[in-house]
Amino acid sequence: MIVFPNAKINIGLNIVTKRPDGYHNLETIFYPVKIKDALEAITAPQLSFSSSGITIPGDKENNLCIKAYELVNSDFELPPLKIHLHKHIPIGAGLGGGSADAAFFIKLINHQFDLKLSVEDMQNYARKLGADCAFFIENDPVYAFDKGDQFELLELDLSKYVIVLVMPPVHVSTADAYSGVKAEPSAESLKELIKLPVAQWRDRIKNDFEKTVIPKYPLIGEVKQALYDAGALYASMSGSGASVFGIFETLPPLEHLEAKSSVFYNV
Length: 267
Ligand SMILES: C[C@@](CO)(OP(=O)(O)O)[C@H](O)COP(=O)(O)OP(=O)(O)OC[C@H]1O[C@@H](n2ccc(N)nc2=O)[C@H](O)[C@@H]1O
Ligand SMILES: Nc1ncnc2c1ncn2[C@@H]1O[C@H](COP(=O)(O)OP(=O)(O)O)[C@@H](O)[C@H]1O
Known about the structure:
With 267 residues, the protein is an alpha+beta fold. The protein is built from ten helices and twelve strands. The strands form three sheets. Strands 1-4-6-5 form a four-stranded mixed sheet. The longest helix has 16 residues, at 97-112. It is globular. The mean pLDDT is 95. 4-diphosphocytidyl-2-C-methyl-D-erythritol 2-phosphate is lined by residues 10, 23-24, 26, 28, 94, 96, 99, 130-133, 147-148, 174-175, 178, 239-240. Pathway: Isoprenoid biosynthesis; isopentenyl diphosphate biosynthesis via DXP pathway; isopentenyl diphosphate from 1-deoxy-D-xylulose 5-phosphate: step 3/6. The active site is at residues 8, 132. Residues 202-253 form the GHMP kinase C-terminal domain. InterPro entries: GHMP_kinase_C_dom, GHMP_kinase_C_sf, GHMP_kinase_N_dom, IspE, Ribosomal_Su5_D2-typ_SF, Ribsml_uS5_D2-typ_fold_subgr.
């Protein structure tokens, strides 16, 4: 069976408080976008993992697909699988690519072996693998809170806009990005702000990571400015970076950005 895990963007991200477990409570909007990996699993004499496309840092054994397999396998006796991942979603981009692979793999296993796991069961497995992993089980736009792993479904349809994702040649570690921020309760809830017209988001909706990540990696700020210069109604870094997205009314001319960065069009 083959599945196509997609990325997400964060529209707004407020880091609200630091938790006793070292994590942070946040509020953010997760919105699925169409940039995708391809992930295939077939039964085989032994468990194996291979990948193609973008090189994934770290050992194969630590790949989130293997972690997802081991987690479900601790409760069910699964047959060994030959797993292949074609990696297309930029890594360390704030696009949740690794989490998407893990969540889609849980869904694949559930379907392929008829485990009859509920959405909640699958979300509970996913939460153990990463804070944003559970989002990808339902994969619908949500307002997320707590560790970013609790959700309320949101009426948000951006399909009439063109969303452009730009990945500058910069890698931001999520853990480092969190260690640089000062948690602060937000004055206005993102749940309310997101109801404003997209053209008003620029002055009202922020990503708290930008304050510390952009000074460290100025190229991210330059890309964001270039998206506004090209006519974006709203532009922001996604998650802990380094990718930046722009929301446009029509397809913008962005060839000049392609020299330094990878550019993806969510159309
Ligand atoms: C920042 C966000 C925003 O959507 O996304 P990305 O930029 O990674 O895509 C997420 O909170 C990332 O979620 P995820 O990538 O699953 O994080 P995890 O693997 O669970 O955690 C990586 C590290 O980030 C920090 N962390 C993560 C989530 C959170 N609510 N508070 C934290 O402090 C912890 O130091 C943790 O060790
Ligand atoms: N299937 C996977 N795809 C991408 N990264 C993975 C995967 N499994 C494990 N990782 C590890 O997770 C780290 C963060 O990956 P990713 O999810 O792309 O970043 P982000 O959290 O910024 O969206 C990578 O550096 C990599 O070592």
